[in-house]
Amino acid sequence: MAQPKRVRLVEVGPRDGLQNEAQIVPAAIKIELIERLVDAGLPAIEVTSFVSPKWVPQMADNAEVLRAVLSSSRRRPEVSYPVLTPNLKGFDAAIEAGAQEVAIFGAASETFSQKNINCGIAESLKRFAAVVDAASALDVRVRGYVSCVVACPYEGPVDPQKAAWVARQLVDMGCYEVSLGDTIGAGTPASVKRMIEACATVVPIERLAGHYHDTYGMAIANIYASLQLGMAVFDSSIAGLGGCPYAPGASGNVATEDVVYLLDGLAIESGIAIDGLLAAGGFIASHLGRPPTSKVARALLARQCRG
């Protein structure tokens, strides 16, 4: 299949990126980061997560952040602002705060599902079905995630057919798109290709997205391999923020700056300005007190300094 002419990026830095930070990031910083990402041209930005602050203290300000972003003068109507909702309680809180799109997150590994959301895969799907039904009644779009589609930190390699089965369940219950997560970043172009091919036999490639962590430095290579299969949606995180509190050793998501640099080099449209990304990445990295992990950001910033 030919590579796509245009790719849609889903920015997950404000949620998936910041949730793994030990220091609590003030709501005002999160809001400014999201607005900078909007200015840079991101078409979809995952704003926050409506989970218990007991488990993820970083997201305790979820309603405040979402309301501020949705009422901002810098908001663009064409940009979507999904939020994570693991159950009906989280969904109800998100709707009360104004959410218009939500996401649910399952796993292709039984052990990881237990560690992440305290229930097995079958029980998680029952919970998600209730959320999707509630969302459907309100015309709220639902995006699905499948974690550990290539490997699990507890079980090792994951059968591609298991990832495909979970992805199909999410589509059947009503998710408009399913993001396939290499949560520990162990995938290579070969293993990612096998996984995507298995998933694409039961879910149209147009409804699949790639979510690759860069633990082994393979994320960009895996995106390139996915592009060759026709995948046209990818999750990425500004400045390479992220990790997973339930996946020991998992480093950050692939950096948005690096993905856009790849797409620009392949003449694939994204609608995202690299200069805007550098500004947004520099902003949050400065607040966190460390440089961005994006290789492209470091290279371009170094070039600017020499110039």
Write up this protein:
- The protein is an alpha/beta fold and 307 residues long.
- The protein has one domain: TIM Barrel, CATH 3.20.20.70.
- It is 44% helix and 14% strand.
- The chain has helices spanning 13-17, 27-40, 62-71, 88-96, 110-117, 121-137, 160-173, 189-200, 219-228, 256-265, 274-288, 295-306; strands at residues 8-11, 44-45, 48-49, 83-84, 101-107, 141-147, 151-152, 156-157, 177-182, 208-212, 233-236.
- The strands form two sheets. A nine-stranded parallel sheet has the order 2-1-11-10-9-6-5-4-3. A two-stranded antiparallel sheet has the order 7-8.
- The longest helix has 17 residues, at 121-137.
- The radius of gyration is 18 Å and the shape is globular.
- The N and C termini lie far apart (42 Å).
- The model has no long low-confidence stretch (mean pLDDT 93).
Topology (elements, then pairings):
Elements: E1 8-11, H1 13-17, H2 27-40, E2 44-45, E3 48-49, H3 62-71, E4 83-84, H4 88-96, E5 101-107, H5 110-117, H6 121-137, E6 141-147, E7 151-152, E8 156-157, H7 160-173, E9 177-182, H8 189-200, E10 208-212, H9 219-228, E11 233-236, H10 256-265, H11 274-288, H12 295-306
Parallel strand pairs: 1-2, 1-11, 3-4, 4-5, 5-6, 6-9, 9-10, 10-11
Antiparallel strand pairs: 7-8
Helix pairs in contact: 2-3, 2-11, 6-7, 7-8, 8-9, 10-11
Care to give the gist of this entry?
This protein is α/β, with parallel strands linked by helices and about 300 residues long. About 45% of the residues lie in helices and about 15% in strands.
